Amino acid sequence: MHQEMARRFAVEGTPLGCIPFGSGHINETWLLVTNQPHLYILQKVNTGIFPDADGLMRNILLVTAHLRKKDPDPRHVLTLIPTKDGRDYILFRDNMLWRMYEFIPGGISLDQAETPKDFYQSGRAFGLFQKHLSDFPAEELTEVIPGFHNTRMRYEAFHRAIREDCRERVKNVQPEIDFLLAREEGAGLLLDLQQAGDIRLRVTHNDTKLNNVILDEKTREPLCVVDLDTVMPGLAATDFGDAVRFGASTALEDEQDLSKVHLSLELYRAFAEGFLGSCGDKLNQTERETLADGSRIITLEVGMRFLTDYLQGDTYFHIARPEHNLDRARTQLRLVREMEEQDDAIRRMIREI
Ligand code: ADP
Ligand code: GN1
Ligand code: MG
User: Fold this and answer.
1) 59 located within any domain
2) Which of the ligands is closest to the CA of residue 211?
3) Percent of the chain at pLDDT above 90?
4) Which of 99, 112, 113, 173 could potentially form a cystine with 89 if both were Cys, beta carbons 3.0 to 4.6 Å apart?
């Protein structure tokens, strides 16, 4: 199927083959090789998760056009490859979304920072992304997944999964459930501040994992922010926090040996310096003061989403082993605990920066 789809796009040269690519949990991604040096990224977007394919692609077209005005370097912004009949993407049988991007040459995408500098650079990339979109009218974007980072709604889904217990897995994870339930009350903090008008909706990325940034493989400078499917109105603290949850851990997101999983304040600081250095002047005082809350709350939320998916039989995130989502949930809860323990130090550090 993907070979057939690849042939429908207006690529240079003749497609030779597709190689599965990247470590995303949602879409299917291939590197398309042709008989020319030019490479492409082919993706089948998960329309079970993103049912509004047109709205999603419209967001990406709007946002990339805006970013290109700020920085015309082709390696710095994703570029869609049109189909041979001049469309921006293929909606096959009304529900299968296929698209192609220029491959960003000379870049790397990391699941773990090799040095704090790498993570600092990813902070710069997401900070610049935020800054460049700070004058984009957020209301023009479709909310592709309503309530994507509405932690209260995520709690409701979690409660439902526990009640239904369709795979009879609740009995395996009572300590993890208790951990999450004990923190439900504080989880709406950012939502309350937003409702009160103290922090505002901005155009945010909403999935700021380190592997969603391409760094130059030689200089390790930021090249391009990718994975724009979830770009929509959101909160700066969430973008900041999601990056830290993934990248400031001393282990991979799915590490099974929890003794290896710690929050590194050195990495946290590196990201915060990069991020705030690029967009700190665009944020108001409350936004800056709630960055630490953002990292704790989003880590809690993602841990809960992994556990919810485990309880529901692993229908959302791609898994490679039976308890993969449970392993992921456990690393996140471990990080939440350490964020709580180090809360004072984290706040002090952010204030210093
Ligand atoms: P998912 O939603 O499944 O995470 P992504 O859009 O993030 O899908 O793509 C998966 C991975 O493919 C990314 O993490 C990145 O490493 C790589 N990738 C995506 N687009 C490009 C691109 N245009 N050039 C180079 N690598 C890319
Ligand atoms: C998913 O697509 P990917 O792998 O970059 C998920 C994020 C989670 C992340 C956890 C659309 O991101 O919200 O934080 O996994 N994306 C979606 O690793 O749900
Ligand atoms: Mg991704």
Assistant:
1) yes
2) 1
3) 96
4) 99
